[in-house]
Structure formats: C-alpha cells, structure tokens
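Quarterly update, task 2.4: pyridoxal-5'-phosphate-bound model.
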Amino acid sequence: TWANVPQGPPDAILGITEAFKADTASHKINLGVGAYRDNEGKPFVLNTVREAEKRVVGKKLDKEYAPITGLANFYTAAAELAYGSNSAPIKENRLAVSQTISGTGALRVGAEFLAKFLPSKKILLPTPSWANHKAVFSAAGLEVGQYRYYDKSTISLDFDGLKADLEQAAPGTAVLLHACAHNPTGVDPTKEQWQAIFNVVKERQLFPLFDMAYQGFASGDCDRDAYAVRYFVDNGLPVALNQSFAKNMGLYGERIGAFSIVCESPEEKARVDSQLKIIVRPLYSNPPIHGARIAAEILNDAQLKQQWLGEVKSMADRMIEMRSLLREKLENLGSKKDWSHVTSQIGMFCYTGLSPEQVDRLASEFSVYGTRDGRISICGINASNVDHLAKAIFAVSG
Ligand code: PLP
Ligand code: TYF
C-alpha cells in the first residue's frame, strides 16, 4: 500500500542527536538541539518545577479534559508574564489568549488563524530563522517570504537590509519577529532598532507576529526580554504572540505554551476567542493539563515565581559564562580570528560563522556536533568540555 511513500530527510536539528548518539567517542559533544544542560552536561529539571509538581500531585486533582483553550489560571498568568501585569489589553479584557501545545503549537494555531483571517495570507520571516517556521506557516497555507536579518560579513544584524525589506512589504503582510534571543543567530536588535522597526511596521501597516520561545534566556530577566513585545503593544499596535515554556521552565516534553492576540475591544476578543476554539478543535481538541498546572503553580505563587525567576537567571548566567570561557580559550590558543561575536550574541545559540564543511570536520574529526549553518547550542558547553571544543573550533577555523 505504501510502496510510493518516499524516504524523507531527517529534521535538520533533531537529526543531529541521532548522529551524536551513534558516535562512540567518550569526548563527544552535542551542540545541536537547544535544550539546557547543567554544568555536568545533564538535562536539568528546575527546583521550582519539582516543587510545583509536588504541590500539584498533593492536590489529588482529577484528570478531566481541559477547556479547548486550556487552563485559565495558566494562560492568564502566561499573558501577564509576557505583556506585563499592567498591560492595557489585559486590564481592558481585550486579549484573546489560549494555552497551546508549546511554542510550535502556538505558531501553528496562529498560522491557521492568519491563513483564515489575514486577507494577504502572506508572512515574512527573517533570513535566517528557525527552520520549523517555514514548515509551520506553509503547512497552514500561508505564502512565506523573507526579510533580510543577518549580515554574514559583519556577523551581526543587517539593519539596513531589514528596514529596506519591511519598507517594501505590501500593507497587510504579516511579519514574524523573534521577541528575544534570535534563533539561530543570537543577534537581537537594540532598543533603538526595535523602535525603528516598530515605526516601519506601523507605517507600512504590517501585522507583527512575535515568537517568544526564550523569555528570560536572553538577558536573564523576563521583563527585559519582553521589551520589544511591550513596546509594540504599549504604543498601540495590535500584535499576536507565541510563547513557550519549554526553555524558561525546562518543560520541553510537557508541551506548554500560549498564543495570544491583542484585540481592539472585549467584543472583538470574544469573536477571536471563538475562532481560536474552532481552529483548535480539529487539530487536537484540547491541550494537556499536567505541565499547565505546574506552570500555573509557579506563576501564581509570588514566592515560587520569584524563586523561578532566579533559576531562569542562573541558567542564562551559566550560558553567558560559557560564552566568555569559549572565547577566552580560542584566544589563548592563539586564534587570530575575531571571536567577539561569541560573547556579543545572546541566548542559547552562537552563530559561529563556521562553514558547513568546517562543521562537518568538527563532527568527523572531533566528535563535536552542531548544525551545518554554523550554529552551536551554548547549553551543551560546560567546564569539562570547553577545552576540547575550543581546540576543535581552532583546528577547523585555521
Ligand atoms: N520558536 C523558536 C524560535 C524556537 O527556537 C523554538 C524551539 O525551541 C520554538 C519556537 C518552539 O519550541 P517548542 O515547541 O518546544 O516550544
Ligand atoms: O532550535 C532548536 O534547537 C530548538 C529545539 O524541530 C527544536 O528550537 C529544534 C528542532 C525542532 C524542534 C525543536
């Protein structure tokens, strides 16, 4: 029956883990997927997550279906974390918001909404962007275009290119913006640049869709990382927002996220809410409850929330420390290359500037695995493997 089914390619990022697992070298390093590791290279479950989970289990709650848009005490708290507790759309009951199956599910629900209700049916993504973005938006039936973002020659933001491309976009086009800790480049606009992007988006009447998968991971401060989203909203632009708690709560496999749309009135919000439900029903009916209960427990308990913000900061700080260490080791080895981008970039990823061939050599000669675009996941670096990593990068980069 399935004789005509062709073999598909592996996921460009998740496929790396397979290659890593097959490598028998004891000094192998997986810098492919963006999943936080502690200083021993082990997956990390946050103390606040353990505590919240204990409390949730202690409540002996039932396992009934969640409502279609999820648990209200989760998505309300999630929205406050992103927009700020004084945010006008929240206070004025005009934020349509739904729990989703992590950030990817938020993107897909948002994509389906745009495909149904955005007349242009067109979205622009930065070049480069997270590989799954194009797949999600195309799958929902949107036309996917690009805007310039990253300049290879300077290893930094191509701000002029970005502005020029948005200035040329047709009114009504959606624009995907990484709210913070851009994946894969680790290059974010400055506050002044965000303000300029806001002006172009507003003047050109583009529709801003923020993807915030890394709130807290860029600067260690969840409020600071929400700067761009809040600037757009506080200055009157209706945005849509995707949130994920995979990274900042380490709830990767629990699949906890949220999708929200700023509306003009409670009446508009009610109509949008009704359509979000219509989109979710045939996709997965209703979202999982366990992770949502954990996240809600943390976000709604002032003390636990404070402790959690501290844990987010310590994860972000460890990555910043590893960036410094890697740069220092490369310079100490005598590399004549400029490695300042290793420390100036932020978030989980470093866009090294290595070519696909150099990345191939990292794997074949040094058992160091990253993606072929030269991205390495900073979370995979620790005090025990940074020497080997620096030597490997130095050897292939000449
Ligand atoms: N958006 C970006 C930019 C990402 O890097 C990721 C991956 O972590 C996601 C969305 C969604 O991830 P998840 O579905 O695990 O929340
Ligand atoms: O970019 C990353 O590594 C993370 C994790 O299909 C990820 O965003 C990667 C690929 C994928 C899903 C999640």
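Highlight for this quarter: Residues 34, 102-104, 130, 178, 183, 211, 213, 244, 246, 257 surround pyridoxal-5'-phosphate (ligand 1) (CB under 6 Å).
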